[in-house]
Amino acid sequence: MKTTFTTTIIKALVCCAIFFAFIIPFQELQAQYPVVAGTATSYESSNVTSHDVSLPANVQVGDLLIVSMGFRDRTFTATTVSFPAGWTALVPRIAATGQGVVYYKVATTTEAGASTIVVETGTVDARSAHQVYRIQSGTYSGVPEAAYSGAMV
């Protein structure tokens, strides 16, 4: 069977229509996941009230920063945990002696280029361990959410 020029053009147009109708929308529906662009781990091995929390390298304005922090001290039950202004509690302090909190912030010029933030524990000394995640700007939407139940021990 001999193919005419018109038949070839029609086949090409049908292929283009299928591509634009099905394949491109399918690619746009695929999930876009947040990109963890950096992490930092730090700790205070002595009982202190000011905790230096290391930030990941290369923090940029608009990056999402998530800090997970654990505390340990026998008398820590009467203490509050104070993050710098602008940080929001995702999981507040809720347990007795083994403490854990998670806070987040969309980075501003304060965090961009900074190496640490200082978290205060009031008048009660405590040891602490910290893990910070930097989620690249433009790869996430909205704010983090968390659900928890019971004590974080």
Q: Secondary-structure blueprint of this entry?
A:
Elements lengths: L4 H25 L6 E13 L1 E5 L9 E9 L15 E4 L6 E9 L9 E5 L5 E10 L18
Biggest sheet: strands side by side, in what order?
1-7-3-5-4
By secondary-structure content and strand pairing, the structural class works out as: alpha+beta
Q: What is the rounded Rg?
A: 25 Å
Helix segment count?
A: 1
Share of β-strand residues: 35-45%
Helix fraction?
Answer: 10-25%
Distance between the termini: 77 Å
The largest sheet is: 5 strands, antiparallel
Succession of helices and strands: HEEEEEEE
If you average the pLDDT, what whole number results?
78
* Shape annotation: elongated
Tell me the quaternary state. single chain
Question: Gist?
Answer:
The chain is α+β, with helices and mostly antiparallel strands.
